[in-house]
């Protein structure tokens, strides 16, 4: 039996916020801009798709991605980094206890 993860994944929090704002994933990413090329837009979209869909402790949130969230949502990037790190610690503890 595996141990439970005690903290919510950041993607789940973001999904709730997006729902409250009536945003899709595309809307979230659009608010992270400006993007100077289609390639830059595609890379950003793919990065966030990966983050939302691969909820594993080895998928990290770095300062650039946290800043993108800050730009889109008007919340400190440090909040997002801290929130993700708390989840990651919980996930690693659950993995160790599995």
Please state the average pLDDT score: 91
Outline, from the CA principal axes? globular
Largest sheet: none
List the secondary-structure elements in sequence, H or E: HHHHH
Structural domains: how many: 1
Supply the helix-strand structural class: mainly alpha
Stretches with pLDDT under 50, minimum 5 residues: none
- DSSP strand tally: 0
Q: C-alpha Rg, in Å?
A: 14 Å
Helix fraction, binned, reads: 55-70%
What fraction of residues sit in β-strands?
under 5%
How many H/I helical runs?
5
Question: Keywords for this structure?
Answer:
67% helix, 98 residues, single chain, mainly alpha
Topology of helices and strands:
Layout: H1 10-21, H2 25-30, H3 38-53, H4 63-73, H5 77-97
Helix pairs in contact: 4-5
Summarize this structure briefly.
The protein has one domain. Helices cover 67% and strands 0% of the residues. It has helices at residues 10-21, 25-30, 38-53, 63-73, 77-97.
How would you characterize the overall build of this protein?
The chain is an all-alpha fold. It has one domain (10-97). Helix content is 67%, strand content 0%. It has five helices and no strands. It has helices spanning 10-21, 25-30, 38-53, 63-73, 77-97. Helix 4 (63-73) crosses helix 5. The radius of gyration is 14 Å and the shape is globular.
């Amino acid at each position: 039996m595996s141990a439970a993860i005690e903290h919510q994944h950041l993607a789940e929090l973001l999904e709730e916020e997006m729902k409250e704002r009536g945003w899709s994933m595309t809307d979230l990413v659009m608010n992270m801009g400006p993007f100077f090329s289609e390639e830059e837009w595609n890379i950003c979209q793919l990065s966030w798709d990966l983050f939302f869909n691969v909820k594993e402790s080895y998928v990290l949130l770095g300062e650039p991605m946290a800043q993108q969230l800050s730009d889109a949502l008007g919340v400190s990037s440090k909040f997002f980094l801290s929130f993700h790190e708390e989840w990651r610690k919980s996930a690693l503890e659950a993995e160790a206890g599995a």
